[in-house]
Write a structure and sequence with these properties.
alpha+beta, three-stranded antiparallel β-sheet, 6 helices, 3 strands, globular
Length: about 110
């Protein structure tokens, strides 16, 4: 199993942390990191409140903290793609697509695509 040297959240925090550091950049951050359409997933036991994933930071948070499995080809590809958005080599739309593939691989219920 692949283990990152530094956790993703240690590097990026949450979208609220990013907005707090750069309040004047809030709209720009959402333009760069935001998904065109939200993805709503159900993580955890049946009956859990669905989670809206609206941007790349939300996707990273779900993948690193709440994902039901921490292995799989699409799981790692989704993490890599999300991180690539931060260095500009991938788009938020690429990250959204990778997140959906990882959800399918992990049998995560997707309510809204």
């Amino acid at each position: 199993m692949r283990t990152p040297e530094i956790s993703t959240l240690d590097r990026f925090g949450t979208i609220a942390d990013l907005k707090g550091c750069f309040p004047w950049m809030e709209q720009s951050l959402m333009n760069i990191f935001g998904f065109r359409r939200d993805v709503v997933v159900s993580l955890g036991p049946p009956g859990n409140t669905p989670t809206a994933v609206t941007n790349v930071v939300d996707a990273v948070e779900c993948l690193t903290l709440r994902w039901p499995v921490t292995s799989g080809q699409y799981y790692w590809a989704a993490q890599d793609t999300c991180l690539a958005v931060f260095d500009g080599s991938k788009s938020a739309n690429d990250a959204r697509s990778a997140f959906l593939r990882a959800a399918n691989e992990a049998d995560v219920i997707v309510w809204k695509q």
